[in-house]
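pinging the channel bc i need a second pair of eyes. not urgent but kinda urgent?? the chain im working w is below, pasted from the shared doc
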Amino acid sequence: MSSAALRNVSRAMLSAALLTGAAHAQSVQDHPVRAVFMQGIGEFNAHHLETFLEQFAPDLEMYAADAGWLRTPASVRERYVSTFARFPNVRMEIDSLRVRPTGREAAVVNFIFRVYPSGTGAAFEGTGSGTYALRDGRWVEVQEHETVTRVDPLLRR
């Protein structure tokens, strides 16, 4: 193939990739993982443990700043049972959520969160990421990592 023909093929491939990327960027706001993620936050805030846990795959691996690596359904459950018992009014807000499809059956989320242990007032803030997979027709989280970036001084006492 001539150099000119290779350049034309390269340009066509680049144009197709850019158009595909633009289509993905436009559809990210409507990606079903966004709804799954936000429904999970709603269930967390309502302290509906069972429906909150449904968003997680049985083989989830979660790194939580307060608990380290959680790699079993029992350890994930215990983290939230303990959280809801210690902080009966705990509430979480999501300041930013970005969903990036990585294929037809996978997506990555990046988020900035704020947790109010007493429901209002003092909070700690952080950032996180998660990987979602489409399994048996539904999106589930298979990996999550959370990092606390700021703790209100009132919570450090």
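so The CA atoms of residues 97 and 111 lie 4 Å apart. and The chain has four helices and six strands. — does that match what u expected or am i reading it wrong
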